[in-house]
Every structure is written in C-alpha cells, then in structure tokens.
Queue: 2 jobs
Job 1
Amino acid sequence: MLIRHPPDLPGSEITPQGLYLRRRQFLHQAGALGGAALLGGLAGPARAQAGFGPLVKSPTSTDEKPNTRQDITTYNNFYEFGPNKDDPARVASRMKTRPWTVQVEGLVKKPLTLGLEEILKLAPLEERIYRLRCVEAWSMVVPWVGFPLKRLIDACAPLGSAKFVEFQTLADPEVMPLVRLPLLDWPYTEGLRMDEALHPLTIVAVGLYGEVLPHQNGAPLRLVVPWKYGFKSAKSIVRIRFAEQSVTTTWMKAGPGEYGYFANVNPEVEHPRWSQARERRLGEFLKRKTLPFNGYADQVAGLYTGLDLRRWF
Ligand SMILES: Nc1nc2c(c(=O)[nH]1)N[C@H]1C(S)=C(S)[C@@H](COP(=O)(O)O)O[C@H]1N2
Ligand SMILES: [Mo]
C-alpha cells in the first residue's frame, strides 16, 4: 500500500475532498509509471549534517519539551515529494539546495535576486523553540534555527503600497515526483499580510536542532509562522512577491471551504470534516486541547482586532 495514515485519522479527513480525488488519480497514474518504484526508488543517502555552532535561545521559545529529531524529520508534509508522511524523508535528499537563490519581485524598489549566502548574513541566527500545529490535528515542538522574517523583508525593500507578501516554493519535476501530477496547484504558494510577515514571531528557518535544515523540513530556507496552521509555513522558498492584494493560496485552491487565507489556529472553527478542538502531540497518546492562535494569542491576537475570526479563518 502506498498510502498509509496515522491510525487516529481516517484517510478522508486528512485531505480536502478534491485533493483526495486527485490523489487517487495520482495513484492511478503512478501505477502506470511503476507505482512503488517511482516513489521508493528515489530514496537517497542521508546528507551529511552541518552544525551552526553555539546559538542564543530566543526568549520567544516555549519551555515545552521539543519532539525528537527523529519525529521532526520523519513525519512530514511536503507534498512535492509524496503524499505520505514518510515520503519526504525518503525522497527529498534528491533536491539540490546549493546554489540557491530567491527571486524578489512585485512592489519593491527594484526586483532582485538574493543568494542563500547573502540571506544567511542578514541577521544573527538563533534558536527558537516553537509549537507547530498541523491542520490535520497533530502538533509538535521544534527547536528551529532561524532569524526574523522582517530582516529578509527589509532587505527586499518593499514599497509602501505593498500590503501582502507572497511566497512560492521550489517545483522541480526532476527531483519532485509529485509536481508532475495535479495533486496540488504547483508551485506551492502561500501568503501573509504585511503586518503578520513583519511580526517578531515570524521567522525564516534554516536549521533545526542546531544543524542545517534537513531537506524534508524545507531546506535551505522556509517560513515558520507559529500561530497559524502548519501549511502557512512554506518550505524551500524560491520567490517572494510583494502585492497590494492577497493571493489565492495553494490550499485555498485545493479546498476553498476548508482552508482560509489567514489559517490562524482556532479550536472554535471546525474544519468542515473534523474538529480542531484537540490535537495529538507526536509521541503522545492522549490528545491535548488546541489553544487559540496555537498558544501565541497574547502576542498576536492584536493583529486581528475587528476581524471576525470565524468568517476569516
Ligand atoms: N513547499 C511546501 N511547504 C509546505 C508543505 C508542502 O507540502 N510543501 N506542507 C505544509 C504543511 S501542511 C505543514 S504541517 C508543514 C510541515 O512542516 P514540517 O514537515 O517541517 O513539520 O509544512 C508546510 N509547508
Ligand atoms: Mo499541515
């Protein structure tokens, strides 16, 4: 069986209906291409890990116990590499992360290309231990290595008219088997309102557990927006675009009634097909209560005063 699900999540709940159907279509097509060989044959040797040296731990860190490196790097959503939680760890090592550039365009002083090395010099790296809550009702605690997204945005020199920022991620059919198939609308596209992007909790992550980000977690750079569902945290970013209007994101296209633009963690707004009131922390048996804004309400609720969070989910 290619498709496996965690035992407490019926398959039809994991993905929006449209995605579920496209996944069946994918399986059908993958079958024609050789099925398991297509996904399984791509597993590469584990990459050498490089450390960042001693890091300051940000006071924004949670004091909850981080999940193990094993959990964080083998239970992933990175659909470009496959629909199962263990596909990214097996397949993503094929992605080349050097050289890597990020295209900056839209409402900016002038369009530019930033190299990864330049980006890494923008700000000191620090450790940020954050909760990550997936829309599928599981969560984990991750010791990220990163820096505030604001520092990268400042380097992009957006115009005052920019109200939203859009992120596009790598869609390379040579190394990502799924982008040949219409499982999602590739390239994976996400967006933030400018004030969300500039918020001090929002980071660019380039590592975890003190080491360079494993490919399956979004190497070489990804967003982490801890008060939003995990899908807002786009992996392997190659393009940043500033705009006056918000984009229709990949997940909004996949399930318009299921995934909103804001996607703030909200235990009171049910996903149409399951409750968001509780979550299973990876490695734990009993479910815990999901907190508004994933427990970051004190810091971020103020961004949404006057916004009906049931309507703008
Ligand atoms: N490019 C890309 N980014 C992505 C995804 C994806 O499929 N593709 N999945 C998202 C989802 S649904 C989640 S929950 C998080 C998971 O991050 P992690 O695997 O590092 O825990 O990545 C997000 N970023
Ligand atoms: Mo997710």
Job 2
Amino acid sequence: MIDTYANRFVCDLVAYEPGKPIDETARELGLDPGDIVKLASNENPLGPSPKALEAMRTALAEAHIYPDGGGYRLRSAIAAKLGLELEHVVIGNGSNEIIELLCHTFLNPAAELIAAEHAFVVYKLMATLFGARYVEVPDPGFVHDLDAMAAAITPQTRLVFIANPNNPTGTLVGQEAIDRFMAKVPEQVVVVFDEAYFEFLEVPLDTLRYVREGRNVCVLRTCSKIHGLAGLRVGYGLASKPLAALLQKARQPFNVNAIAQAGAIAALEDADHVAATRQLNREGLAFYQTAFAARGLRFVPSHANFVLVEVGDGDRVFAAMLKQGVIVRAMRGYKLPGWIRISVGTAAQNQRCLEVLDREGCRQGGGTVLQ
Ligand SMILES: *Cc1c(COP(=O)(O)O)cnc(C)c1O
C-alpha cells in the first residue's frame, strides 16, 4: 500500500473540514443555490470591498505577468497603515499559509507547540503534519488561560499560538493578561497572536508593540474576514525583522497572486466597507445573543463575527438546518458535540437562521448561562 512509503505524519493527519459549500449543499439536497444561506465560515455578508473589485478588474489585464514576488506594494501599504516597516511584513496565501511558514521554520519531531484546548484547529493539524508535540492547555469558560500557557512552556517549546479573539469560541484575552504573559516568555519561544478578527474589536489590543520592540512575536491578520476576500486568499504576518526574514525564506516565490495583491491593497484602504461591516456585525451579534438569552440557550458572548451556541445535539441540528437551506457549523471536531457556531449574516439571513433554529426545538445541554 502506498501509505507504507508516505511520511507517517501525513498518514496520521485528519484533514481540515471546512464549512459546507453552497453549491455542494444545493447539489446534494436539490435546492436552488440562491435560496441557501451560508453562515458557516465567518465570511463577510456584505461581500468584497467594491474598491477591491475594481482594483482586481484592472489587475486582470496584466495577468500574463508574474506577480511581484517580493510583494512590495502590498507590504508597503500594510506597513504604512500599521506604523511598521516593510521588513516586518510577510504576505501569505491566507494567514493559514503564515501559520504553515511558522511551523516550517520552527517545528520538528523534538519541538512542542502550545495552544488552548478550544483554539483554532489548524494549529493542531500543523503540529501533527510536522511531527511536533501538540500541548493543549485547558481554557476554563472558553477563555485562553495565559498563565497556564506560560507555565506549560518547556525548553522544547518553539511556538505558542494565541487566537485573539479565538475561533470558534469568540472569546478575548485582554491587554493586561497579554502583557503579563509576555513578561514570562523566554527567548526561544515565538508567540503567535492570531488576530483574524482584530478589526471587529470594540476596544483594540496592542500586540504590535512587541513586534516593534523586536520580541519573537508574529501577529497574524487577514483579508478573509472583515475585508470580505476569503475567496482571494490573502493574509499577512507582522514580525520582528529577523523573524520575518526567516519566514520569507520558507515562502514560495509567488505565493500571493497578482490579482490578490491588487485587491488586498484596495481593500485595506476601504475604510467605509470596514465600518459598514462592523456596524452590521454589531447589530447581528446583539440580535443573536438577545434571542439566545430569551430562549434560555447557553452561548459564549462573542468578540468576533460569529457566536457559539449550545443546542443539545450539534450534528442533528446542523443536519436539520442544512435541509432547510441554512448552513452553520457543527462543533464535534472541537470536542463540543452539543454546540453549533453561527456566523453573523445580514439582518434577513440572521432572521431566517433563527426561524430555522426555532423550528428544530433546541435543548440546552445544562449548566450556567455564560453571560
Ligand atoms: C479565519 C481564520 C483565519 C484566517 O484564515 P485565512 O487563511 O486568512 O483565510 C486564521 N485564524 C483564525 C483563528 C481564523 O478564524
């Protein structure tokens, strides 16, 4: 069997299961794709930035030319916006690629990666892929326990991932906890702050100060969430210059295509689209959280563009909602079989989602309401 000859770490891997695509759902259930609402991957319900669309249309005419492999214009735009220098910025095919570059650079079978129990699942997949030891630290109340994570650091630890806000829980660790953590982290450890939902925060955090100070820190951001460009695949890492230089070596020459670079530059400048998305999200989150509280459903108050809610049997509710054309995310893969995660949509999409959920007569799994 071919598996015998393959890398054991690859054979051991359980592939990432993304949100169910609209077209696949339509095909399998004989529904009209136009009638399906996807609230499964934390995408922007307003769509891409219109400015990004225009920039990409223009860039298409030059599609016969290789992209700028150094990503000069996009990296300069990111650096200028954040008060950093070009040498701090690494661009990736989604921030997922930056996660992979970090693992390429630091993991091996003798190394350890630390993350929280209910952290974004990609960290575990990557640790497995590189044969490293994945150290999972309990997160009581679904909030990262940074004191416990610091205590878990050993001489073998190379990477600590802090998703902030975390996906799928939507919880946040504050500045004070971060600063206390950073005061304890030894030099051989790279701290990764995965801030895919940073732009949704009501009170911004400052982790870039550690990048400026030259600490071994990488901050991840993405165009996939608030900028509405998940299909384009652009993310970036912000790191101290020596760390960024290492990540650049691990990167393929043309990892971010020319159309994506052009679209990302325009999206980052589109403050109106970002503001409109934030406002819509604020209203949508309030809508869901008020509705769940009124029904006595346990949920985790969210700082992002999705909410985790306990429905009794997550797989059953997911499947029943799917049949009615609403795609959410079942959470068994996160060891939360009683929960589903719902992304915030437009007001009409949220309304429909709640109606379908109500029809399923969800039961609370018990315990205290987290609010
Ligand atoms: C969505 C998400 C990402 C972003 O992925 P991209 O590859 O940039 O699309 C990264 N981290 C977390 C925690 C996320 O939820």
